[in-house]
């Protein structure tokens, strides 16, 4: 409970990385990392290596929940100033880790997911410059009103090769080759799906171009690669529609993951600094409405039964219940409809542990990696889910924890008290 309460304190979350670095200087690395390992890390991460997450995977499987294996890494242009040779070595190292995650996901019983970050597979500065070129030529959905422009241009990577410097062009080719090769590995294993994470808006157009190429190559009759759509962006509905249309025209199978968004404060500040229109919705209510609209838009497409797949990645109970109700209306079976539900490990267990046992395809994102690598990831997750921690979400989580503790105390006196508790989600999933 203390971890959830701490995540609900904005000053602590805002300055968490500086506090961690300061603690390392004062208390030392060993003491600081031990403290983090037994608090925040234990709550939200599966382990420090691929072997360390196996007990977590086993526990989730016992409860009808699958894993999304995610090597946690955070990259931003401001932190990516290494030389070209070092950058390529780092990308190759990340590629090897992601490949290992693909094979780990293949050993999961049933469907296995893994997630990649393209900024770990290509220099972020190159991705930013490539994205700027796409935006300048109207071949990117970075800002409101530009979402449709990218889609008639079926192969933006070809245009980029004519415009980038030789160094950037070479780096783009290598990044694309890494992503496509991993997608081909996932496709060859049969039961693995590869999620491509959304990133900063100034890198996203290039990430989209690379992802679309991987989808064109491997999504043949099944959605092996799923791109991520951030619904706090005003351009997302038309970008989503454009990508579905592009898949139909090019003859590949669409797959998408819907999230609300991960970089709100950063995107607003970046747009203001560049004199660009505000790319995100003006209110949380508008974001909720956009999310539910995109879920309905994509689910109608998936319900046609042509192999398309989607992930409803949300901690919002109302959105989950709305999606479940829509599945019912469309006659979609919980266990094999191509609709997946995703939540972060350590959060919204009342959703995941209701969906999974009731036959829905529920998954938990299982981040893993060394503490110094995963901590920036955890801090960003805490920042992006600030509303959950500050408002009703954390209250609901804490209330459920207190109720469960009380139930276990009662059970020590009366074993019949150990009965599953009903919930509105159980009713929704029934």
Automatic annotation (TrEMBL):
Membrane-crossing residue ranges in chain numbering: none
Enzyme class: oxidoreductase
EC number in record: 1.5.5.2
Any one GO biological process: L-proline catabolic process to L-glutamate
GO-annotated molecular function: FAD binding; proline dehydrogenase activity
Entry-linked InterPro entries: FAD-linked_oxidoreductase-like, Proline_DH_dom, Proline_oxidase
Keywords (A to Z) from UniProt: FAD, Flavoprotein, Oxidoreductase, Proline metabolism
GO cellular component, one term: mitochondrion
Pfam families found in the cross-reference section: Pro_dh (PF01619)
Cofactor: FAD
Reaction it catalyzes: L-proline + a quinone = (S)-1-pyrroline-5-carboxylate + a quinol + H(+)
Keyword Phosphoprotein attributed: no
Top-level taxon: Eukaryota
Domain Proline dehydrogenase: 60-387
Family label: Belongs to the proline oxidase family.
Function: Converts proline to delta-1-pyrroline-5-carboxylate.
Protein name: Proline dehydrogenase
């Amino acid at each position: 409970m203390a971890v959830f309460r701490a995540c609900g304190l904005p000053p602590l979350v805002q300055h968490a990385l500086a506090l961690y670095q300061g603690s390392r200087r004062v208390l030392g690395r060993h003491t600081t990392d031990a403290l983090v390992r037994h608090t925040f890390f234990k709550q939200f991460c599966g382990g420090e290596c691929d072997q360390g997450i196996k007990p977590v995977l086993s526990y989730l499987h016992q409860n009808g929940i699958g894993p999304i294996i995610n090597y946690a890494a955070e990259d931003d242009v401001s932190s990516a100033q290494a030389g070209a040779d070092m950058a390529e070595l780092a990308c190759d190292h990340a590629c090897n880790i992601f490949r290992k995650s693909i094979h780990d996901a293949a050993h999961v019983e049933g469907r296995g997911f893994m997630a990649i970050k393209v900024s770990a597979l290509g220099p972020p500065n190159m991705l930013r410059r490539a994205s700027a070129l796409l935006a300048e030529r109207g071949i990117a959905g970075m800002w409101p009103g530009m979402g449709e422009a990218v889609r008639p241009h079926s192969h933006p990577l070809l245009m980029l090769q004519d415009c980038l410097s030789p160094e950037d062009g070479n780096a783009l080719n290598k990044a694309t080759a890494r992503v496509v090769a991993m997608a081909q590995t996932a496709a060859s294993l049969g039961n693995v799906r590869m999620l491509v994470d959304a990133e900063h808006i100034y890198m996203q157009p290039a990430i989209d171009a690379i992802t679309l190429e991987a989808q064109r190559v491997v999504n043949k009759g099944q959605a092996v690669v799923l791109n991520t759509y951030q619904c706090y962006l005003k351009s997302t509905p038309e970008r989503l529609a454009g990508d579905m249309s592009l898949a139909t025209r090019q003859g590949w199978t669409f797959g998408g993951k819907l999230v609300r968004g991960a970089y709100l404060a950063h995107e607003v500040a970046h747009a203001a600094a560049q004199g660009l229109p505000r790319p995100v919705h003006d209110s949380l209510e508008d974001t909720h409405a956009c999310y539910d609209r995109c879920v309905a838009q994509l689910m109608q497409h998936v319900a046609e039964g042509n192999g398309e797949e989607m992930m409803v990645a949300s901690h919002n109970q109302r959105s989950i219940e709305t999606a479940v109700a829509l599945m019912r209306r469309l006659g979609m079976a919980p266990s094999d409809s191509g609709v997946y539900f995703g939540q972060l490990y350590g959060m919204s267990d009342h959703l995941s542990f209701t969906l999974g046992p009731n036959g829905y395809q529920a998954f938990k994102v299982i981040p893993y990696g060394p503490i110094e690598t995963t901590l920036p990831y955890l801090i960003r997750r805490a920042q992006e889910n600030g509303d959950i921690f500050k408002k009703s979400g954390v209250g609901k989580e804490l209330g459920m924890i207190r109720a469960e503790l009380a139930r276990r105390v009662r059970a020590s006196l009366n074993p019949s008290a150990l009965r599953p508790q009903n919930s509105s989600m159980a009713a929704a999933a029934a």
